[in-house]
Amino acid sequence: MRQFFKSLLYFIIPLFLFFIVNFIINFFFINKEKIKVKESSVLIVGDSHFQRGIDPSLFGSAENIAQLGEPYIISYWKLKKLQSSLKLDTVIIGFAPHNISSFNDEKFSDPEWSSEMFQRSFLIGDYKDTKGMVVDKIGLAKVVLMQMFLLPRKKHIYYIGKFAGTPQKKKMNPKDAASRHFYNKNEILKSSETSIAFLEKMVTLLKSRNITPILVCTPVHSSYLQLIPPSFRQTFTDQKEKFKQSGIKVLDYSELTLPDSLFMDADHLNMEGSRRFTQQLITDIHN
Amino acid sequence: MLFNSLAFAIFLPIVFFLYWFLTNKSLKAQNALLLIASYYFYACWDWRFMFLLIFSTLLDYFTGLKMSDANNQTSKKIWFWLSIVINLGFLGVFKYYNFFATSFAEALSNLGVEVHPRTLSIILPVGISFYTFHGLSYVIDIYKSRIKAERSFIEYAVFVSFFPLLVAGPIERATHLLPQIKKQRTFSYAKAVDGLRQILWGLFKKIVIADNCAEYANIIFNNSSDYNGSTLVLGALLFAFQIYGDFSGYSDIALGTARLFGIELLRNFAFPYFSRDIAEFWRRWHISLSTWFRDYLYIPLGGSKGGMWMKIRNTFIIFIVSGFWHGANWTFIIWGALNALYFLPLLITNNNRNNLHIVAEGKMLPTLKEFLSILFTFGLTVFAWIFFRADSLGHAISYISGIFSTDLFSIPDIKDFEKVLFVLAMVMVFLVMEWNGRAGQYAISHLDIRWKKPFRFMLYYAIIFMIIWFGGKQQEFIYFQF
Predict the structure, then answer these.
(1) Tens-digit pLDDT profile for residues B437-465
(2) ipTM value greater than 0.95
(3) Distance from CA of B189 to the nearest CA of A (A)
(4) pLDDT value for B478
(5) How far apart are CA A271 and CA A55, in angstroms?
(6) Helix axes B6-21, B229-260, angle to 10 degrees
(7) Could A4 and B192 be called an inter-chain contact, meaning their C-beta atoms sit closer than 8 Å?
(8) Is pLDDT of B205 > 90?
(9) Where would I find the H helices in B349-405?
(10) How far is B68 from chain A (nearest CA, A)?
(11) Cα–Cα distance measured from residue B41 to residue B261, given in angstroms and rounded to the nearest whole number
(12) What number is the average pLDDT over the span A226-251?
């Protein structure tokens, strides 16, 4: 038995040392790594609706850092990290019914999403802050292990997205999108208190730094719009009114009628759609 | 609790430590610990099915005792059939009821009689086919007076539910496993090291080979109508390596884990893809099931003793039953029948026991004839896997017709083709390692003799890093559903 444990130890020690060295190297790289966001006055934050829907090159000085499937909690952590290093005037935040759906509460526990979300957020996130969300702690530990111990990596910052306009038109899939956003099997999901709370925290944070927050809902196809449960539309409208009353600019384009050719699918604009929409958005912001 | 999960990585060292440090002085304590650990392991899947497992264990334990103590043949027979009927009854209800009900209704509907059968919405208890077969072999062996009934319930319960083999085999025999359970195990350095090595190799097969192949095989099979012939061939090939890596990987982990506790399980795979004919393939694939059917079905049916027609009939029966054992779907039945058809020419020409030894034994490479035979056998197997993997017979037929209808000789057209090429490259590395180790129990079992420690360690590190870096998305073991 002693010989067995001795051999096991001899086998494990080099492996362990390898992991420690990787950790030290990665720690060094993290401190050296620069956040790749150009100095700009406007920052665009949100999920895939924004990532595909707003072309920053049409603004005078703007950066789109939106990412696929991003919940408000990560947007908040990103803004908290970036607001001190950037000289921002305005932050445009994606605000649509699906952003306040409780499907966002599963982003740290759903196997489809969690490892991606942990990879993006483990350097900036405070997971004690995640009231109302289940956090897969083992999944988080795995991601940290992969990122910090297994290999020396130069890149660790995965939370900065960029505009991803898509020229092609995919199939319209309003049912798929709506069921993902608003339904669990056939039951209508609840609205997410955590998401609403973090949206409010973002707005408060920006206002405290004299940065103007603007909430924007991108256009969606009418076939998708019809499938949004009335309860969600009501909660969305209530929230919209609440923000307006507190002096926040809210621009809702969800019911803007656009031809099918401007959509990538039922809830995302394509390249041409984003160009047309961004031009209108710029005009409306300035008015 | 999956073998390739963090939970198992914590569970195994704890049980290992308790087993060798706390219970090593007493056989009873060793077995009690194994039983508790096994029930905990099973309860992690679904604690409700624990009762079914315990009931099945109690049933076979008591009927075994009653048969052993029976004064006459009639009473022995009654207890024997009671056990068989209840065991198969459970299997029938949980696994086959819906299939029979819907198939019967379809058959009546074809005759113009509309019936709406009531189907059961029940989950298939994990491992039911495996532990039921453990119990059946025990009861049959007692009935045939090959063994005596086990008097200790704990020892019998460990035989049925020993956690490494509980959910996906190998299907053990009382004659092989019970004597090991009844004897106190002492720690063996060589066995423990060999066990760890086999676990590592099993994890590599599962995580690197099977899970990576599964990702693309699933895409191709689930959207087969969108792909051309060459891509469909690629999908079938990837599935062939997925199922091999998955199931033989599981078996390696099970055998390695059992060896850590001083127990030897039956070998389940012996490099089946290097078989030169289908008969050899079936001597090397899922050996514990093939030999189970041979001993408890083929031989009682008369085996090969009653002339050619008898041989053919019995061969078809065991292949079809073996297919049906895998699942309640016509696809499995056709898969079994197809393998019987492949087997037939060898049986008729009396060539089914030609290739009993390892291919190209003691040589680096096979002869051209051996190579072509391996390739041909592999091709037949891959073709049959299409039925095994397809969701329905219609799906299998449309998949096969898709192969021959469009662009069979073009470059496969699948998204991320470079990644698929990378997966195929890993499969090639894996095949080379398997080929080099084909004389052993598993591909890297010979390392102790041939390689010095630093080189062995280097290889183990390389395997560990391949598992970490190139491991595919975690998938459940295919054979858990059976």
Answers:
(1) 999 999 999 887 778 888 999 999 999 98
(2) no
(3) 6
(4) 67
(5) 8
(6) 20
(7) yes
(8) yes
(9) 368-389, 393-405
(10) 41
(11) 16
(12) 93
